[in-house]
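Every protein is a chain of amino acids, and every chain bends into a shape of its own. The fold becomes a row of whole numbers, each drawn from a learned catalogue of backbone shapes. The protein below has been through that process, and both of its lines are reproduced in full.
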Amino acid sequence: MDGQGQSGDQESERLKALRNFHFLQQKAVTTAVVGILEQIDSLDSVDSRSVSPGPSRNVLSEEHEPLDMSDGPGRIKSLAQMEPSTFHELVSWLTENTDLAKSKRRRGRLTPDEKVLIFLYITTRAASYRNAAELFNYSLETISTTFHQVLDALCVLCRHTVRIPSFEYSEKALGGKSEFWPYFKGCLGALDAVYIPISATSDQHPAWRNPKNVVSQNVLAACDFDMNFTYIFAGMEGSTQDSRVFLTAREKDNTFRLSSNCYFLADAGFSSKSRLLLIPYREVSYHPQGPQQPANHPANSRELFNIRHATLRSVIDRTLKLFRRRFRLLTTAREGFSIRTQVNLVFALAAVHNFINQRQGLDLDGEFEDEDDRDDDTWKTSPIVDDFDGNLMIRKRDMIAKELWEQSQRSTS
């Protein structure tokens, strides 16, 4: 009996010890899980963020108040690539006119200032999500969600800032320049197509590959003489001819409408039949040079017209180069982005480009970092003919050339 009782007591002690072990094990697991969750929360917590490493003061406010422009304006300018006052105006417009201020996150809610700053940091520096996550101390998921939220908001801004001007703009821009006015009356700016690198699946590469063997989209862009975009048509495959992109825009985009007697300047890769475009004479030099003909001294009306045309049309080249210099993300394909996202980026960044120009003017210091990868002798291509308007612009070109030549002859006699 004593042996059986002793054995029963030992079994009871073992069960008790086993229960205590399981209890302590469960408690340890619970404690570990709580610790991990607290570490995750600390990554997204408001108090642990700093946009610059080291002991320097945070650029962003810890209380989620709007950015204090006196608090590190140099850092804000560096990250956003714009003046702090312009950044503040941009955030204010997006907050008042879009859903940018709304957030699905329950904790550590981002302010509109932070959201826009994250987006601009990625697009101006071609930074990865991981770089942004490390700099701003947010998770990759938060960075991705924020990027797309700001992208959608800026597409709304694009509809307000990228607009074709009215007929009156022509005189405002050219009226004080006797070499162009009134000959180019009704000219609203210049238009061209530009290749923007794009990421696509391997089976899509043939359609998106441009003549330079780069997978890209062919974007139609127009600008005014102040280097503001007035029209954008993005999303066409890189293999598409420029004139086909133009015709598709006319057919599918109801916003691509010009006032009566208005037009854009374009290169000879486009058709001369459209009433919306004034192109140069093909196979006629833009910059005549030779033993009998000094530079910039044209021999006839066609050469003179091409020189004046080229001078005005160069604004689109400068605008596109500035555009890609400001937003380095446009110079490289980003893996992981959908085609729709990459197309919308062009619209969104065109809106920011105009917003900067209209608030703080142009900063053209330094040389442009990239050159367009198109041939200068674009007249060698065969533009798709748009004969809807017949020879209207051909006759207009001949008339302008004649008037320019007559004025030139009078001034030299």
